[in-house]
From TrEMBL:
It comes from the Bacteria. GO terms for molecular function: calcium ion binding. It comes from Candidatus Wirthbacteria bacterium CG2_30_54_11. Residues 1-19 form the signal peptide. Gene3D superfamilies: TSP type-3 repeat. Keywords: Calcium, Membrane, Secreted, Signal, Transmembrane, Transmembrane helix. It holds the Pfam family TSP3_bac. Residues 210-227, 251-262, 304-320, 531-546, 604-619, 626-646 have a biased composition (Basic and acidic residues). The chain crosses the membrane at residues 654-675. InterPro entries: Ca-binding_acidic-repeat, EF_Hand_1_Ca_BS, TSP3_bac, TSP_type-3_rpt. This is EF-hand domain-containing protein.
Length: 688
């Protein structure tokens, strides 16, 4: 025990020369007090008592523990002016326990006549504070502040006055709360969560020994501690401690140092280094796991880097021109790896661009990759597999037609009734037209349509041209024109003419249009048989609108408007100012002069081609009056029994002409053949 100080509290009057001994000196009952009431061992406690006297006295007082005085005795002068004084002492009790503390008046001057009230004793309880938390053990629920209450420690068997009962460096409470044994020091070096921190390290860091990643940031606690990161702060996963372009989490995942921006020391920051642990490699362009320095095909496009340099392609880009097609594939297909436009080309004409074929996995040089009869584009458009030939024979929509049959007739392999007319594609003769279903004669023309337009339901008349407009009946059906009317839209231009030149035979506006700007409407071009898309059909330098002979490159003018061009009349000695000569027959062969022009014969010679038949006779017989051997069989028309058939003609053996009746007699073996001027050869059997 040690006394700190003795304090006398009160007012000190001036001393007197004489004393009056008649008054009583006493310690006021109950005035002995302690502050704090229960001090802690090693802590200071103030002990004080109240001493009173109603007369003049010099009083000496002292404090005792048992019989041992603590502190020093103090003397004080009392008198009526200051009848009571507090004597106080600050004292430290080094050990806990129960202490009898006494305050005594040890002497007075003059002598006190009554000493019965000159002493008072009280017991002072001094508590211990094991964990130095300022709370004595007697009232502290956890005397050692190890995280377990004293009652829990009693149940567990640990020492409530020792924070680390087993001496393994880990508080008992932490061990118990984390499923470890606070009575066994062996578990301090265990690592149950395999995070690289043993249990006493986990306790030191405040991490969970049963969770490898306490803050759930993707980085193990041990790794974070090793690199001075916080295993209790999940936010440091996204931070970049070394400013190398990689987050701390990425550094962990790559196995590199988050505190060193260039882990392998090759001069490339880890964030830009594909091989941050290999100082011989920094890049892996194609991501194949082989660094560019060792890789012979850096972009993995199938072309060695050396070959790319020869070709001028980029060895670090698998698609140099950025058209979506790998350089090597372009080379193999004969495309240009430096020209992005060829990706849009359809090399095999199957309706898919080269790029689309590459993306679909089909062969861009083969319109039907799987050789099943279905073009790749058709299969893709209809949900079939262009790489599986077996689907051609399937009947996807269950209409009785295989997918190949559907393709052949243009129907949808996914719809049993393509045209939606309630007649299945197999039974429907016109599966693409909801208006028609039956075709009794199988000529491709619907029965109802044939009836409507006067065609025959019992025979194939699809290839005939009922209205002689240049369009067969089947084509008229396809176009929607009338097979019985040569000019369906009645614009003055025949249907066939309009179709031939790209006009709409159902649009009457086409007839009055002049698309070639030659001064003739399309209807007029039709009437003249000129080309409505060419200003100068015969190419003679005079556009059709002013050319009186737009189909004859040698003529363009008819001064007397007699139907014979000026050049023709001049050539054969006719008058350019006389329209009457068009009706004359200058050579007497039965053809008018104008007919000779139209036939291309000489109007001054009866037999232009000198084949012994007049021009008129040739026209009547169907031979060419300007060609001596029409059928080219080596026999001139005048001597050929069949001048229009190169395989069956024979030359005549003799002939006799009866001019009076205009008959030519020819002997052919046992037959007599005669020819009138206006008739073809006829045969009369004369026997033998």
């Amino acid at each position: 025990m040690a006394a700190l100080a003795v304090l006398v509290i009160g007012c000190l009057p001036a001393p007197r020369a004489q004393a009056v001994a008649n008054g009583d000196v006493y310690i006021e009952a109950g005035s002995l007090t302690f502050n704090p009431g229960i001090p802690l061992a090693g802590g200071s406690v103030r002990i004080q008592a109240k001493v009173c006297s109603m007369d003049y006295f010099n009083i000496t007082e002292g404090f005792f523990v048992g019989t041992d005085q603590i502190g020093t005795r103090q003397t004080q002068v009392f008198g009526p002016e200051s009848p009571c004084w507090f004597f106080a002492l600050d004292h430290v009790f080094s050990e806990a326990g129960e202490y009898p503390v006494t305050v005594k008046i040890t002497s007075t001057d003059p002598v006190d006549s009554d000493t019965s009230n000159n002493e008072e004793t009280r017991t002072l309880t001094v508590d211990i504070d094991t964990d130095r938390d300022g709370i004595g053990n007697s009232v502290d629920p956890d005397d050692d502040n190890d995280g377990l209450t004293d009652s829990e420690e009693a149940d567990i068997g640990t020492d409530p006055l020792k924070q680390d009962t087993d001496g393994d460096g880990i508080y008992d409470g932490w061990e118990y709360r984390h499923g470890l044994d606070p009575l066994s020091a062996a578990d301090k070096s265990l690592d149950p969560d395999a995070d690289g921190l043993v249990n006493n390290q986990e306790a030191l860091q405040g991490t969970d020994p049963h969770s490898a990643d306490t803050d759930r940031d993707g980085m193990p606690d041990g790794w974070e501690v090793r690199y001075d990161l916080s295993p209790l702060n999940g936010n440091d996963a996204v931070r970049d401690a070394d400013q190398d372009g990689l987050s701390n989490l990425e550094e962990f995942q790559k196995g590199i140092d988050p505190r060193n921006s260039d882990t392998d020391g090759d001069g490339a920051a880890d964030g830009a280094d594909a091989y941050p642990l290999d100082n011989k490699e920094t890049a892996d362009t194609d991501g194949d796991g082989m660094g560019n320095n060792a890789d012979t095909d850096d972009d993995n496009d199938g072309l060695p880097d050396t070959k790319e340099k020869e070709l001028g392609t980029d060895p670090l880009k698998s698609d140099t021109d950025g058209d979506g097609i790998n350089d090597a594939i372009e080379i193999s297909l004969g495309l240009d790896p430096l020209d992005p436009s060829d990706a849009g080309i359809d090399s095999d004409y199957d309706g898919l661009s080269n790029l689309a074929e590459i993306q679909a996995g089909t062969d861009p040089t083969k319109s039907d990759t799987d050789d099943d009869g279905l073009p790749d584009r058709y299969e893709i458009d209809h949900g079939l597999n262009p790489l599986d030939s077996s689907d051609a024979a399937l009947d996807t929509d269950g209409d009785g037609l295989s997918n190949l049959d559907e393709y052949a007739q243009g129907t949808d392999p996914n719809k049993a009734d393509t045209d939606g007319d309630s007649v299945g594609d197999q039974e429907d003769d016109f599966p693409l037209d909801p208006l028609w279903q039956l075709d009794a004669d199988n000529d491709g023309l619907p029965d109802a349509w044939e009836l409507e337009h006067g065609l025959d339901l019992t025979r194939d008349d699809a290839e005939e041209d009922l209205d002689s407009d240049g369009l067969i009946n089947k084509r008229e059906f396809e176009l929607g024109t009338d097979p019985a009317v040569a000019d369906t839209d009645r614009d003055g231009a025949g249907d066939g003419f309009e179709v031939r030149y790209g006009y709409d035979p159902l649009d009457p506006a086409d007839g009055v249009a002049d698309h070639d700007g030659d001064g003739l409407t399309n209807a007029q071009e039709f009437q003249k048989n000129t080309d409505p898309t060419k200003r100068d059909t015969d190419g003679d330098g005079f556009h059709d609108g002013v050319d009186e002979f737009p189909l004859d490159a040698s003529e363009h003018l008819d001064s007397d408007q007699d139907g014979m061009p000026d050049n023709f009349e001049t050539k054969y000695g006719f008058l350019l100012s006389d329209p009457v000569d068009t009706f004359l027959d200058a050579d007497g062969d039965g053809l008018l002069n104008v007919e000779e022009y139209e036939a291309g014969t000489d109007p001054t010679i009866r037999d232009t081609d000198s084949d012994n038949l007049t021009d008129r006779e040739e026209i009547a017989g169907g031979t060419d009056p300007a060609k001596a051997d029409t059928d080219g069989d080596g026999i001139s028309d005048g001597r050929d029994t069949s001048p229009l058939d190169p395989k069956s003609g024979r030359p005549v053996e003799w002939w006799l002409y009866a001019g009076a009746v205009g008959v030519l007699f020819v002997a052919l073996g046992g037959s007599l053949v005669y020819l009138r001027r206006t008739e073809r050869l006829r045969r009369i059997d004369i026997g033998g």
